[in-house]
């Protein structure tokens, strides 16, 4: 009686048999054996198989439990589906590499100890690089870089294992604390394979140059094995939550810029794995289930997407968005199947991504991580935007470039069809997947609120895509990523070969010259003479120091008060009005309209005070708002109506950055101040002492004119100065400024016209 | 770079935007009546929040990515070759 058949062994055996078969026999072997491994998984109960003692350590080759089993299911399934897609490939070496690679992945997930995990981990790295190299001569350098990074990752892992085993005396692979050098090195080794920035660049560097069929396997196994080991070893490690969020967004941002169609998908692997890593970081049963379900669904729809783009490259020989377009007519089936994958990854209901992605986000919500939820939702919108809208628009729709093409051979279509079928099947019958998950599932993706929310998010993104389409056409560029360090940075480093040369460069004279140059540049920057630059400088400085101050003070940010806020409908309405009038201020071209809508914002804020039951505060707000609007309007009265010059985009970016900085810092500051009670409230003191000390029963009056008399006095002084200013400006009205006269004649003015007018005025005097 | 938009494109775009916006409006309207079982955060009970968030998210992603892309990240295709 066979105790247990290790699926990795099945893969290795298949690899060994491949050289000896031809034709139909090869097809049966390649598809049948992985499928056999898939079904064999159902036969054996949970438990530890293949246990050996080597050098005093217990090595477990087959730890079968729910977590390892679900990954094995999807790996073997993917092995079979991927082989269908790869059947036409003549080079047997490709099949062998893919099978050994798949076997390494299966070995890693069944490894119950760190030592055998490391061995299979390295088998994966060294077999997968051949799939990159089969991409052709151009991929050699990329493959070498891929191997270097994975070797480095493997060394981190090995070092971590040795230290960890030395400290604990055991090599069993269970939960590993993310502390101490050993734990951290193991975590880094895992994260390199997961593709976490800044150690992710190997992925978008190597995958897009891999062979067309090899990339399908590459995008399935390495990162998802990393997800498995993270779930096994580091579930609930909080830092992973943020690593995951960063990954999810990082991939999306780079995908927006990418022109190479498979590189775009590669960046989305990082983004999607980010969802899984975040789920693992949250660490609740629901979140871990979500991460595992997402890994399962992701392997299939990402393979489908890679197959779709692989088919496009296979049939047209072109791999850039700028070179492709209008293929829906010549490759309709590929287009349709690709879109199934696209809709799945975007989380469209009734497809596989929806039932898994929503689980991760719900897990983070149930564990009460508001920022994780919002940022992951943001990444989800970005996924839909770039994978499912931008990419197919560029390749299949868009400008018809008249490329001669047809749908790929039958086996490739069949491979895509199988993957698409499973995507739909899981979306319609989520329990098929849910019953395989490591924890019992009590989660229902298809509720009214959930469906409506998802459709709103998707439709809104589609609307945004339609509006910003002109910004989203592919551009003929590449984007630098952290691999810059070892691709370009190294060259700089090599120039400093001789350390003494490096010192010689820094002579005293050069140092002095450099210093003057530097200070000249700094003062040119700071004292540019533009009011705006000065304002940007001042505001950024104040905001950053506020931020630093509150951080060093050790104030903690808790969102309790924000979460407990219940908004009534009328409050919500006023809130919307405040936001929309603020937006209007930014969007208005005319300055007067902008000032007026800014005033509106102030008045709505006052209205908010009324609703909150503070009429006196509202009154003050009304007064201040009226005065300031009048003041600004008067100031504008002496300036031309508006400049016709357009603001440079770079300057606009600075404006946006500064505004965002102010918004974010002030919001955080207010939240921190609200929740941290810095000093004891003085209110009770006032209430008690107002009669005793000041002899007044009306506490408010006493506070204003007695306790805080100086305050009031200076407030009055400020108001008087403002009033004087207004009065002065009204008086000035009699003598119109020269520029204003010109403006009255011509409507709006260009900068040269203004300078001319001023010049004339000066010379006439 | 972005292609020049013809007046035809503009008309098509306007039509598409109208259709999408009205569909979105309908969904936001329906959202008032959806029962909430899992309102973890205050925004979960605001009808139409997902739509507004989705649109803002889309705008932020497009302008932020392209902004930093053009400012720092995007290079000529032969950037690494020399």
Keywords for this entry:
heterodimer, A: 765 residues, mainly alpha, two-stranded antiparallel ribbon, 32 helices, 3 strands, 72% helix, globular, B: 82 residues
Unreliable stretches of chain B (pLDDT < 50, length at least 5) are none
CA gyration radius of chain A, whole angstroms = 32 Å
Summarize the largest interface: chains and residue counts. Answer: A-B, 60 and 55 residues
Low-confidence stretches of chain A: none
Task: Give the total of beta strands of chain B.
Answer: 1
Shape of chain B: flat
Largest sheet of chain A: 2 strands, antiparallel
Q: What fraction, in percent, of the residue positions of chain B are helical?
A: 55-70%
Large-scale geometry of chain A: globular
Total number of beta strands of chain A: 3
Radius of gyration of chain B: 19 Å
Strand content of chain A: under 5%
Distance between the termini of chain B: 24 Å
Give me a quick take on this structure:
The complex is a heterodimer of chains A (765) and B (82). Chain A has 32 helices and 3 strands. Chain A is mostly helical and 765 residues long.
Give a written overview of the molecule.
The complex is a heterodimer of chains A (765) and B (82). By secondary structure, chain A is an all-alpha fold. Among the domains of chain A are: 233 residues, no CATH class; 240 residues, no CATH class. A two-stranded antiparallel ribbon of chain A has the order 1-2. In chain A, strand 1 and strand 2 form a beta hairpin. In chain A, helix 13 runs parallel beside helix 16. The radius of gyration of chain A is 32 Å and the shape is globular. With 82 residues, chain B is mostly helical. Chain B has a domain of 57 residues. Chain B has two helices and one strand. The longest helix of chain B is centred in the first third of the chain and has 25 residues. Chains A and B meet through helix 10, helix 14, helix 15, helix 18 and strand 3 of A and helix 1, helix 2 and strand 1 of B. Strand 3 of chain A pairs antiparallel with strand 1 of chain B, so a sheet runs across the interface.
